[in-house]
Amino acid sequence: MPRIILTAHLSSQAGADAFDVSGSTVRELLEALFVLRPGMRGYLLDDQGVLRHHVAAFVDGDVVTDKVTLSTPVPMGGKLYLVQALSGG
After folding, report:
1. Are 34 and 49 in contact (CB under 8 A)?
2. Of 47, 24, 21, 45, nearest in space to 35 by CA
3. pLDDT at 84 over 90
4. Which residue pairs from 4-11 have beta carbons closer than 8 angstroms and sit at least 24 positions apart in sequence?
5. Rounded-to-integer distance, Cα 5 and Cα 77, Å
6. Fewer Cβ in 10 A, N or C end of the chain?
7. What is the pLDDT of residues 3-14, one digit of tens each?
């Protein structure tokens, strides 16, 4: 089963730093996460369902470049890392 791993800021919002979920693409894993933690949708996706500008995703260390369809495959036992950049001054 794939695993979603969240950085400290995101995990504080989700209540855990990792989730084992079913799915074979980034989009499917995120949708499974949103079933468990519906409030995370707004942190990760914009109102068009696109990964937010300041959120980066990595599958087993490789950057996810398609932030629109999120169709990047995630292998069984793979890891989806979600990182939210904090900005401001």
Report:
1. no
2. 21
3. no
4. 4/29, 4/30, 4/33, 4/79, 4/80, 4/82, 5/79, 5/80, 5/81, 5/82, 6/82, 7/81, 7/82, 7/83, 7/84, 9/84, 9/86, 10/40, 10/43, 10/44, 10/82, 10/83, 10/84
5. 12
6. C
7. 999 999 899 999
- For residue 3, the tally of other CB atoms under 10 A from its CB is 15
| Cα of 60 vs its chain's centroid, Å | 12
> Per residue in 25-42, pLDDT tens?
999 999 999 999 999 999
Distance CA 4, CA 8 (A): 13
Let me know: does 33 contact 4? Beta carbons within 8 Å. Answer: yes
- Two structure tokens written together for 15: 């209540």
Q: Which of 13, 22, 33 has the alpha carbon at shortest distance from 84?
A: 13
